[in-house]
Amino acid sequence: MKTTQIAVYNHTDIPFLSRAKVEQLWALVSREEGKRAIGRLEITAVDEEDIRRLNDRYFGEQDLTDVIAFPYGVEGSGGMWGEVVICLPQVLRQAGENREDEKKEILTVLTHGFLHLLGYTDQDSRLCRQMETRQNEILKTFLTEEMRRKLITRALRAGKKAYAPYSNFCVGAAIETDKKVVSGCNVENASLGLTVCAERVAVLKAVSENIWSLRRIAVAGSSQSLCIPCGACRQVLFEFAPAIEIIAANNHGRYQVYSLEDLLPHPFVASKEQRRHSTPPYPGSSGE
Ligand code: THU
User: Fold this and answer.
1) Is there a single domain that holds both residue 187 and residue 80?
2) In what order do the strands lie in the sheet with 80-87?
3) Model confidence over 85-103: pLDDT tens digits?
4) Ligand 1 binding pocket includes 188 (Cβ within 6 Å)
5) 198 in contact with ligand 1, CB cutoff 6 A
6) What is the distance between the alpha carbons of residues 198 and 187, in angstroms, rounded to a whole number?
7) How buried is 16 (Cβ within 10 angstroms: 0-12 exposed, 13-18 middle, 19+ buried)?
8) Distance (Å, rounded) from C-alpha 221 to C-alpha 160?
9) Is 43 strand, coil or helix?
10) Rounded CA separation 268/252 (Å)
11) 75 part of a folded domain
């Protein structure tokens, strides 16, 4: 199987993005558009003067744009051949102040360029909207996938700290929250029944730090099977984050995504009478 070939010729380095990341993005855009990610893709980063010159030469206007895409058609092996030129100073100007914004802006502009290579145009406002919608969808998928992978890596790392002398099954969990990633590992006990799973350690760590917005949790065990939270952990997750996304991974990073609704269709829900007291964050709490 032929893989994507990307030749990166650049006047300036493209920051924050490795060649592998660019390839992943191109593979995703191609897949989403029903095409195979093969071919030759050239990515060039240029300055303002160069992008104006290119716009002048090929489109007759000396515009300062963030990206230009040149689809050259199909190359010998049947793959796509094209070139994407990004104006790095312009892209960075469009981004916010921090590194994440800059990285996201570069990814946005590259996605835009890739879609142009696959036939999208922004000639009128309808096509422009269509392209933008597609671009945002693909970017969201890419960033979600990236976040899931990051969480799995963190879960695998946390699993290395497991205390599991009785089962020898080490588990790590990592939760994406609105503040930071909170991780945990399983902690066993000689009485066996007092063992606490990695997921619950992570959830309790977060809640004990007043972190309540639990968006996603990755769980990875030291085996080739996907590690899916046990019933008790599902019920604890339900208490704090009924809408949490659950990423069950194996020790090599292979994974499957579940919703808590999939895994716990009939949770125990306390009645109003049982739940008489208000819950933190209490009014006036500093969050610490
Ligand atoms: N374990 C977890 O930490 N999470 C799970 O989702 C499944 C099981 C732990 C508990 C115990 O220490 C070991 O794995 C074997 O059951």
Assistant:
1) no
2) 5-10, 39-46, 80-87, 67-74
3) 999 999 999 998 777 789 9
4) yes
5) yes
6) 7
7) middle
8) 10
9) strand
10) 34
11) yes
